[in-house]
């Protein structure tokens, strides 16, 4: 009978020891200790805390138009290319370096299309895209090869609205028309994004 009197005290002591161990482990976690891995390489990746804005598909497609502005006329620019630059997070929550892909050359109506699959690019298979921007990349016409920032063609048009293509696990983004000109004074360059 006498031993049952010590049971509550033993439980309290056991609880205090466990709580102390947990508190000590929590306080030393993530403060630079290598935990026996002194030669482990240091990571220069930034921790990406917010997970809002993750693009919910492994394949993204981007479409838009590219024009040449001549006076007050907009002429579809055949053979022009847009560039899409994205940011992402890896499976552990760290930011990736920005990565880019180019569109196919625009057709005779100025229409371009770009397609990117994370699964097809080594090192990005387990990443999630967080944000992408579209830029003017190149013009096919020497007489009209000065990019303008109309619809953020130079600083980067943020990809925001999309539609889901059924059965393809693909998000299709549409971008406002981009414009080249032949006049350097109309370029209104503000600096490039990312």
From TrEMBL:
Keywords associated with the record: Signal
Keyword Signal set for record: yes
Superkingdom of the organism of origin: Eukaryota
A Gene Ontology cellular-component term: cell periphery
Signal peptide: 1-25
Coiled-coil ranges (or none): none
UniProt KW Nucleotidyltransferase keyword: no
Name this polypeptide is given: Pistil-specific extensin-like protein
Organism for this UniProt entry: Nicotiana tabacum (Common tobacco)
